[in-house]
Predict the 3D structure of the following.
Amino acid sequence: EVQLVDSGGGLVQPGGSLRLSCVASGFTFSEYVMDWVRQAPGKGLEWVSATTGSGGYAWYADSVKGRFTISRDNSKNTLSLQMNSLRDEDTAVYYCAKRYEPAGGHFDYWGQGALVTVSS
Amino acid sequence: EVVMTQSPVTLSVSPGERAILSCRASQSVSSALAWYQHKSGQAPRLLMYHASTRATGIPARFSGSESGTEFTLTITSLQSDDFAVYYCQQYSHWPLTFGGGTKVEI
């Protein structure tokens, strides 16, 4: 059974940093593109970032480019999102998500989400 | 960026009735369209992909269709468990983009 467990959320001041983690199980983690998607309060879903199975390539939404870094440790089946220079508008529930196919496609499994609150 | 526009924003229906949700892409996405159901406090759930293929375990009362850049999710005979927010998402172009969502309420 595929499972994605998100953690690392919390309250942080504007300008601060936070690191989210997602531990995966039930599939060959290293073979799949993995993503982070977020939902701000009262808003819809917004794609944030993705990385290839090897971690060698990454893509970012313009809203987080230069501030967030996605990475993965395939030996620990863990996906991470390092968030720096956080802003009020980064407040959201962050979900890690698995792609249906190794090379991409839609999302077939999601984590339960980690709440990040940016506030002074 | 491909803009996904969903309508209506809110859909009020009664249990047992049919719900029709629409999603329009600003350019061709070549059937690379998924639908998700999202309930508060839960992870989103994949319903449909490739515009009209039901995901594993999704009941047959959910169906998807496409006509050019217009996509439709139809839920026949709504059940209490179906009241949620539904999102479409295109995965044809970077960045991946979602529609704004349709809330299906009683």
